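Data availability (excerpt). All sequences and predicted token strings are deposited with the supplementary files. A representative entry, HMA domain-containing protein, is shown inline so that the format can be inspected without opening the archive.
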Amino acid sequence: MAETVVLRVAMSCQGCAGAVKRVLTNMEGVESFEVDLQEQKVTVKGDVTPEAVFQTVSKSGKKTSFWEGEAKEPAPAPETEAEPEAVAAPAEPVPEAAPDVAAAAAATA
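Structure token line:
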């Protein structure tokens, strides 16, 4: 039974994508695959298990994780910019530490 596995793979150049392609070309059960460098997305189809594909792609040396929801189609780009994350208020200032009384007593003894 053919399965589709979608992974997020950290690829910064064509060489990175080539490393992923090499390990998938040699993987047993793979019928087809697509490497999208811009989306950092790898889609594998074939008689494979998600864990086996994950392990094989990880051998390329690239940081690999499962694509959230294993979407078969790329999510549409948002039409508006996302709101910036809320910025936490600055922490309370830390009072200066009191001089070490034991060290001062030892110095005067």
